[in-house]
Specification:
FAD/NAD(P)-binding domain, D-Amino Acid Oxidase, Chain A, domain 2, globular, 13 helices, alpha+beta, 2 domains
Length: 391
Amino acid sequence: MRTQVVIIGAGPAGLLLGQLLHKAGIDNIILERCSAAYVLGRIRAGVLEQVAVDLLAEAGADARLRAEGLPHEGIELLFGGKRHRIDLHSLTGGKCVTVYGQTEVTRDLMQARADLGLTTVYEAVNVQPMDFEGEHPRVRYEKDGEVQEIACDFIAGCDGFHGVCRASVPKDRMRCFEKRYPFGWLGLLSDTPPVSEELIYAHTERGFALCSQRSQTRSRYYLQVPLTDKPEDWSDAAFWAELRRRLDPEAAERLVTGPALEKSIAPLRSFVTEPMRFGRMFLAGDAAHIVPPTGAKGLNLAASDVGYLAQALSVYYQDKSDEGIETYSAKCLSRVWKAERFSWWMTSLLHHFPEEGGFHARVQEAELDYMVHSLTASAALAENYVGLALH
């Protein structure tokens, strides 16, 4: 079997890349170790930057997003018992973000690929990217007990943090940077109306909280919890009671509770691999970098990575030029590190760090107060939150 590009991983990054390459006339096959149902069952973020929205439009997978996505022109910061609105729209010259669940993005991309009759191999096990440092890479895998091999020009590693692509690179060929945070996010998904039209980021002495949403009838809430906690330690009633304690009185009164559709705890980490290209294999999305979810950058960074990669491969095939391939890693990492900085800053600003003591807490309060009363500081937050432009 042969194709031009083998994409490993059928999450939103791999699926989006497959669509963009197809639109550019580049053949591709996607390999995914899990079932389609499992991929769709993963609960992830849901705040899209304009760059991600534009790439989904370019991929021909934005019809439902346009109909059902919720444009948000602001966010609210809650501290000292009061909410303060950051007007993203006015501070960025008319930009906004769109709330639309990552599961729905994945579903739309899967459907678009199926409609075109493009090949996705689910439950492909023992996937091995091979010979990617040479001119003739290939990918070996097993399906239904049989070993298969695909010859290709390039391999795209869109297989996540624990995927095989980064693991296949000799450790002396890359440098990894990591920061782990001493807490996690306990998330609860419920079929209840959101407590607020816009997202609420809450900084309290009891810990951070986030009030998010997936639609007008489905909400996603988060609580900062110790890493030692487990989801089963938290009943629905205990979650709702603690969330109320971290909200201002008006929001606490408006909060509509209901049974959890899903409850999980995610540890927070920052992680970057340099470089993001190894010969004819490219890393994209979580395979190359992880951000804490505070800044809503994970899915958006994955989208911008594959946007750069699709562009680079289009130039290679259409113009017979290696320029885009040679600059792929540097372009991605320039954007990645800015998003890492912003996500680290948001995490450091909004979470409770009891081990840091009272001085740290007072500095957080001062910075929050400065940010909401300084037009320049508010604009810097807004510019990063809606997403930096692709260059």
